[in-house]
């Protein structure tokens, strides 16, 4: 069978659900952090679906080889973004998802595109090969092709090129590859609103669609003791929660219908992701959450939002946030500015 376009579900999700394959091996010339983040966040969402608990393996491991950065070069910024994206995904729930990324650093570059699903014992599997890089453009924008191939031969090929790789987390990577300061134009270049291309300064020059200001405070004008910025303080004493966990209160009285992406179907488990660029240069995937969409949080982990807030307030990580902290900072609300393609600026 040959897939042309519209193959994201069949290649990146269905083998885990249908066959309970829990290891995905990828060989790709190029990638982008938006593809990595969206794919792995959605895999985690599906693992966490209480109504369909057994549909996906409880633990999934992804190993990715990037083959075209040896001579084409990779910017230091992209290298750091790849590492941070993987760290964020791995922190969601280490017992559920583990991701690894490797660069080809010796011998010929690798321009192959290969996706292999298998199990812990490598006793069975399924593989696809073709033209599609592990990127948003390849899976959602361009005309690409993928077809099934022998999974054992594909695994042998993966193993053979793996010998020429180095982990993106290995400190020796700086001795093996040359990192460039300026943007490298690639044949899989990123679209304007891709996660990696977004900057606060560039977005501010564009015409926004709408904007909305939302308070961090409760309807009583105080800071929730175990909600909002202090969501990590809920539960019994000694319960193992990250004290940085936080969300922005977004109850019905504050909601602006249609401003943020809502569930496509009423019974969808999660609202769609949207991209947020902060006024100090951070980029997050966020979504509306909880019953009646009464919260806005960072999708990979709501501790990312809480950590960012505490840094802005000048507090230590995990600190309990008070009204006095907001008053000292000089602001108790956050402004979202909406642009095309579900991209937002978050100013605080």
Please tell me the overall pLDDT. 89
Strand content: 15-25%
Termini distance?
51 Å
**Structural class from helices and strands?**
alpha+beta
E-strand count = 17
**Remind me, CATH topology of the largest domain?**
Endonuclease, Chain A
CATH class of the largest domain: Alpha Beta
Q: Any idea what the shape is?
A: globular
Alpha-carbon Rg, integer: 21 Å
- Count of domains: 2
CATH superfamily of the largest domain: Endonuclease Chain A
Q: Major sheet, described briefly?
A: 8 strands, mixed
Low-confidence stretches: none
Please sum up the structure shown.
The protein is α+β, with helices and mostly antiparallel strands and 348 residues long. The chain has helices at 8-12, 14-19, 33-47, 76-92, 136-141, 151-162, 173-176, 200-204, 302-313, 323-329, and strands at 2-4, 23-28, 60-66, 74-75, 97-104, 114-118, 125-130, 145-149, 165-167, 179-180, 210-215, 248-249, 274-278, 283-289, 295-298, 333-339, 343-347. The strands form three sheets. An eight-stranded mixed beta sheet has the order 1-8-7-6-2-3-5-9, with helices on both faces. It has a seven-stranded mixed beta sheet with strand order 11-16-17-13-14-15-12. A two-stranded parallel sheet has the order 4-10.
